[in-house]
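HUMAN:
Could you generate one sequence with tokenized structure?
ASSISTANT:
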Amino acid sequence: MERLKRSKVAGRLRTMFAVLVAFATPGVIVAQGGTITGTVTISGRAEPISSASVSVLGSMLRAQTDAQGKYTIRGVPAGPAEVQVVRIGFSELKQPVAVKAGASATLDFALAETAIRLQEIVTTATGVERRIELGNTIATISDVNTRVEQRLWCPQWPSRASWV
């Protein structure tokens, strides 16, 4: 009887150990990557740029800056990487960074403002030109009340004061 209890306890311990290893392994795998953090500002003024797109080139890792111009990209593979920042109205900028496993690298950007020049657009319209004349008619209406009463009065009504 005591052997049976010991074997059940040992089986439960093995199961709990397997579950613990299964949950701990993904954390170790993620810890092998690093984190890139930083701030994106306007060059010369140090004002933050919000909604700038920050991406690690050659991967699907991306982040967007918040209202203070700060960003964080997690899970970046260890080793050298190139980070690019893009925002409408500013020149794009790329910078290299060395990422260490389980560590955080700081990479700040200062973007220069640029005017966006659009191409010239020329439009032409062709077709037949038509001229339409609108006329006016002037009429004089007299004694309107009498005519309206004659049309609305019905002989079956008890008095002429009844209206439809």
